[in-house]
Amino acid sequence: MKSLLILGLATLLLTGCARFGTQPGASDLTENWALSGKMAVRNATEASSFNVDWEQRAQDFEIELSGPLGQGAVQINGEPGKVTLTKGADQVTRSTLRELAYEITELDLPLDYLQYWVRAKPYPGIEAIIDRDAASRQVQSINQSGWQVDYPLYFDETGESLPRRIDFARNGSSGRLVIRNWVSEL
Length: 186
Known about the structure:
By secondary structure, the chain is α+β, with helices and mostly antiparallel strands. Helices cover about 15% and strands about 45% of the residues. Strand 4 and strand 5 (about 80-85) form a beta hairpin. Residues about 1-20 have low confidence and may be disordered.
């Protein structure tokens, strides 16, 4: 019981440090960045939530998805034209993150767009409508490829702040990403 209490207190302390520590601004991010958070996704028949640890290095990425206390961990490694999911000894490879996710979960999610949307930017080369707050100039929403992406929370109210929460929805599929921590340099 005592060790469980110590573990709980250590978790609260670490979570508190990540949550209330200074977060980088949008201009601090280079093409190499990382985030940690929690994501929930759903459609009419399925729903799932998991922890997300994402490292982006230019066009290459590494994403770890896990349930509570790291159970059911899945590793996703990607580079242009190739995305591989590894869970234990099993591996699945597809050409895009969206393809891979659909095959595994049957959820049609815009995961290829997320590396841009998490930074409140539209996916390049595809038309988008961007709505900004008049005072802070922060992105309030992006409408792209039929997806409505909303930014209800930022780490602070300056125009340079990074998103803390992102909601996205289209045709009955939706997701929410709550970001606990950003890292600007890897």
